[in-house]
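Batch queue: ligand-bound targets. Current item pairs a single chain with nicotinamide-adenine-dinucleotide. No template structures supplied; prediction is de novo from sequence plus SMILES. Inputs echoed for audit trail.
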Amino acid sequence: MRGIALIGCGYWGPVVARSVELTERAKIRWLCDQDEGRAKALQRKYPTAKATDSLAEVLKDPEVTAVVVSTPVSTHSAIAKQALEAGKHVLVEKPITLTAGECESLIKVAQQTKKVLMVGHVFEYNSSIQALKSIIKSGDLGDLHYIQSERTNLGPVRTDVNALMDLATHDISILIELTGRVPQQVSANGHAYLNSGVEDVVFCNYTFADGLLANVHASWLNPRKVRQITVVGSRKMAVWDDLDLKTPIKIYDKHVEMKAVGGSADSFLAYKTAVVDGGLFIPNIQLNEPLLAEIQHFLDCVEKNLTPRSDGVSGYRVMKILEATSASIKQGGAAVAIDVGPAKILHSAA
Ligand SMILES: NC(=O)c1ccc[n+]([C@@H]2O[C@H](COP(=O)([O-])OP(=O)(O)OC[C@H]3O[C@@H](n4cnc5c(N)ncnc54)[C@H](O)[C@@H]3O)[C@@H](O)[C@H]2O)c1
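Prediction returned. Tokens below.
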């Protein structure tokens, strides 16, 4: 049984601890939080685990194989670095770090110490996202025209990072997973209504090399909880709804045909549009527990010395896109080129 140390016992930490224990391959050995009271409160659920506020104490325990970092984003880099240097494998919650530069340094430390560095891009382990990816890859939708991703709710409001870093991180990792591509350019707007300098809402437009467009709307200042992605292809369209636990994917056999009706070819009157509606298809999808699948994958990588699907490079790629998006927001929506450098090569390319 692998010994796991959980760093950060706030909102998400207990969810992670539950999944670690569910694997039955690993056990929570340490609960660590700078607020020791939180570690002790969670210890009531895991009485064999030790509670502490000292990261150093955790890292000197040889029985700790791996560390899961579930603290605020600004602390990820320093904690993950110390853990890697102490010879522990590390799973860091999303977004991997505050900056791409910090992430690059972490990747180097993981390479030097030959330890696994993985980021918790949990939706990449979601079976319905994987099903949507297969549908896109099969070509059933035709040529991809655009993707629209919506992630809204009223709260939880964060003050340490904005809605882009907190919420849109998920959508960006999903976009890369679904398309096997990285966008080339972004134009984005956002606004801080509640806390000065911390955008509560962002609207981001991404352009890919082949003309594919993607829009990401993320907000914690919205009356409705929405977790939806619409994929529009030349032949069919698909809608993914994470909150629909029975039928998360619907495929609409719908498209528009432009029929020539005579006259000059460049005239509007030469064509008439025909809406083709072949009905609705609902694929049967075996739903999984994405976080459990993510932790299982992390343990596989630790045990078999594999490179995680969402490795440090994957985290870096998402960070570079987040940084370009932030730059565009600061410039009032100006187009900003996205350069992820060598991280263009995707492990999980479609
Ligand atoms: N994958 C997901 O769907 C998902 C959902 C929620 C949160 N998260 C991520 O999980 C991480 C934690 O988020 P949260 O909502 O639990 O935050 P939180 O503020 O509720 O909890 C963070 C905890 O970390 C502790 N902490 C802060 N600095 C520390 C340090 N240096 N050492 C030890 N403990 C420290 C705090 O005392 C707090 O208990 C973030 O990276 C967030 O983005 C992911």
